[in-house]
Design brief:
Strand content of chain B: 25-35%
Number of strands of chain A: 14
CATH superfamily of chain B: P-loop containing nucleotide triphosphate hydrolases
Mean pLDDT of chain A: 88
CATH topology of chain B: Rossmann fold
Low-confidence stretches of chain A: 349-353
Distance between the termini of chain B: 20 Å
Oligomer: heterodimer
Radius of gyration of chain A: 30 Å
Structural class of chain A: alpha+beta
Mean pLDDT of chain B: 94
Bound molecules: adenosine-5'-triphosphate, magnesium ion
Shape of chain B: globular
Shape of chain A: elongated
CATH class of chain B: Alpha Beta
Number of domains of chain A: 2
Largest interface: A-B, 23 and 27 residues
Strand content of chain A: 15-25%
Order of helices and strands of chain B: EEEHEHEHHHEHEHEE
CATH architecture of chain B: 3-Layer(aba) Sandwich
Chain lengths: 400, 227
């Protein structure tokens, strides 16, 4: 019995698929509609993928960022001088000549026009970070690519590569005005594509002076002796009544930072895809209704011969799924061709500053797109399939 | 012996909104196994409707209908479809072949509903096509065949699963005289040599004359039965 049903389904479905070329036009409408939706969905999600990748992909497990307990990000964190002391004295940190590889850092915002807009363009936020002397060693692959390193105690800044590309006037030899001071740009640095590349750095004490921050910092960035000493560090700091702080590995920290934007983009992406999807489903429903109408007599003949309604329903669904699959693959491929690697920058909602990143059309996204396309096809095929399976045979036989 | 088909007070009404159209108005009829019955009558008299009821394609409004002792009106849809596959072969005026399939594949279709292995299905499809004289047209598609040939394929498809009953709705209605005669020869042969029970709707008295029995349907009532 089950064997019959499977054979019937295969036979009717094969017949149905062989009929597609006869109705290519209307099939294409559905395919293109679905491809459009999937293209937009994948493109939108590739933004969040790219952002997530840039922000957290290369996050290390042997570097930590220490902020006030419950802060979640550097902006809302504050650590007093003696807390910083407790942190830098804690076990588990990498040391050179007994001194911890740790950089107490503080953080503010510069307002700069983008390069594209030019000198008089509207200002965007650029993170302006005060760093300790070990900051460069703690970063992943810090390297001066133009000019030189900061010298302590001077009104100097170095600029991350991405920030230099993105914003107007960030060139070695020029000056910027911030915190009622003039800062000379002395170098450009790269850091293997990390978020640091979107920042401008100054000496922490000079920045603290310019912005009247006293001795308070917002975070301590530090290198662990090894991945394995994280537990030791955490236990020691957690057990110390003088500090209330959270210790996050760089990977954890960056993932946390990207969460908000990723959530926003995904919500937006799925909302738009849902709205557009409704349109595509209408197109698919239409296509499938006309497909069923074109095959009315054929379906009725099969039913008269003794084929069941289920194989007819399944065959329509399979056709709709096939159209969905085609649309999904085309839409995904188009999004990949158009957007994969597309370079842009966006506001980091955690720090309210610009972060550069590239769209990433990942295999996972393509799968998401194709699954969505199949879903659209399936929904589009349900009503027409139901009608085909339940159409009175006698009426179908009379159809021309 | 019990007749193959037994009808008593068969009524069929179509409902269109609140309006009810009585198409078959209390038919009673018995058809024995091995009969070749021609069903005549003016257009709209309900011939196709009766054929569809006998073939389990439609449901009667009231009355008794048994075929081979089975009250097919009481079968649920799925069982009725199975019953059709096992017991009825339909021959249509417009042939109703599937255009994308070869003659052989068209004829094989009903066998997909059986448990026969593929090789046996193909063998039987060829045997049926040979019986209708189309053994040299196995891989032709319907549009590569003449109308008469298409109808032969239709007949081969109707007999391939060796049904109890052949139901033909104006099988020669779309054919020229010569092809029509050949189809009638074939039906007659199926009746005489192979003992098939056939019910054929036709407008053509010459065609009806080939049958062993003629029925006239008018305004939903069976009239003068000519033997
Ligand atoms: N599905 C339906 N709904 C409503 N009325 C129907 C339906 N099918 C048939 N009828 C009506 O029933 C009557 C009989 O139709 P039927 O097709 O049985 O006639 P027929 O004798 O086969 O005619 P013809 O010789 O033209 O084929 C007609 O008046 C037709 O309009
Ligand atoms: Mg008719």
């Amino acid at each position: 019995m089950a064997n019959h049903t499977v054979r019937q389904i295969l036979a009717v479905t094969a017949l149905n698929l062989r009929n597609i070329p006869a109705r290519l036009d209307s099939s294409l409408v559905a395919v293109v509609g679905i491809a459009g939706v999937v293209g937009v969905l994948v493109a939108l999600l590739s933004i969040s993928e790219g952002f997530k990748a840039t922000v957290s992909q290369k996050g290390r497990d042997d570097a930590v960022i220490i902020i006030r307990g419950g802060s979640g990000n550097e902006l809302s964190s504050a650590l007093a001088k003696d807390q910083v002391q407790v942190i830098t004295d804690a076990p588990g940190l990498a040391r050179i000549d007994g001194e911890a590889l740790a950089s107490p850092e503080l953080f503010t915002i510069l307002d700069l026009p983008t390069r594209r807009e030019g000198a008089s363009g509207p200002a965007s936020n650029v993170p302006f970070r005060g760093v300790g002397p070990h900051a460069a060693q703690i970063r992943r692959a810090f390297r001066i690519i133009d000019g030189r390193m900061l010298s302590a105690g001077h009104d100097e800044v170095i600029v991350g590569k991405a920030a230099a590309t993105q914003f107007y006037g960030l060139e070695v030899g020029r000056q910027i005005i911030a915190g009622s001071r003039r800062w000379s740009i002395v170098g450009i640095f790269s850091d293997d594509g990390s978020v640091s590349e979107s920042e401008v750095w100054a000496d922490r004490w000079v920045l603290a002076g310019a912005y009247r921050r006293g001795t308070t910092v917002q975070s301590v960035h530090a290198k662990l002796e090894s991945k394995a000493t994280l537990g030791q560090l955490k236990r020691s700091l957690a057990g110390d009544p003088r500090v209330d702080i959270s210790v996050l590995t760089e990977r954890e920290f960056l993932a946390e930072q990207s969460k908000i934007l990723v959530t926003i983009i995904r919500t937006l992406g799925f909302t738009i895809a849902l709205l557009m999807g409704a349109g595509a489903v209408f197109a698919a429903v239409n296509t499938m209704y006309s497909a069923v109408a074109a095959r009315t007599r054929e379906i009725a003949t099969l039913r008269a011969i003794g084929f069941g309604g289920t194989p007819v329903l399944v065959s329509v669904l399979v056709e709709a799924l096939a159209l969905g699959l085609l649309g999904g693959v085309l839409g995904g491929a188009a999004a990949y061709a158009a957007f994969n690697g597309y370079q842009t920058s966006t506001l980091n909602f955690a720090t309210f500053s610009q972060v550069s990143f590239a769209f990433r059309v990942t295999p996972g996204l393509l799968v998401t797109g194709v699954v969505y396309a199949l879903l659209l096809g399936l929904v589009g095929g349900l009503l027409p399939g139901w009608r085909a399976a339940h159409m009175p045979v006698t009426e179908g036989l009379r159809a021309t | 012996m019990q007749p193959l088909i037994h009808l008593r007070d068969l009524v069929k009404e179509y409902r269109r909104g609140t309006e009810r159209l009585r198409v078959l108005d209390g038919l009673s009829l018995e058809i024995g196994e091995g009969e070749f019955v021609a069903l005549m009558g003016p257009s709209g008299s309900g011939k196709s409707t009766l054929l569809n009821l006998l073939g389990g394609l439609d449901r009667m409004t009231s009355g008794e209908l048994t075929i081979g002792g089975l009250a097919i009106g009481e079968l649920p849809d799925a069982a009725l479809a199975r019953w059709r596959a096992d017991h009825v072969g339909f021959v249509f005026q417009m042939y109703n072949l599937l255009p994308v399939l070869t003659a052989e594949a068209n004829v094989e279709l009903p066998l997909l509903l059986s448990d026969l292995p593929a090789a046996e299905r193909r063998r039987r499809a060829r045997a049926a096509l040979t019986l209708v004289g189309l053994e040299d047209r196995l891989s032709h598609r319907p549009r590569e065949l003449s109308g008469g040939q298409e109808q032969r394929v239709g007949i081969a498809r109707a007999i391939v699963s060796d049904p109890t009953l052949l139901l033909c709705d104006e099988p020669t209605g779309d054919l020229d005289r010569k092809s029509g005669d050949e189809i009638l020869d074939l039906l007659q042969e199926l009746n005489r040599q192979h003992g098939k029970t056939i019910l054929m709707v036709t407008h053509d008295p010459r065609a009806a004359a080939r049958a062993t029995r003629q029925l006239h349907l008018d305004k939903g009532v069976l009239h003068a039965e000519v033997r």
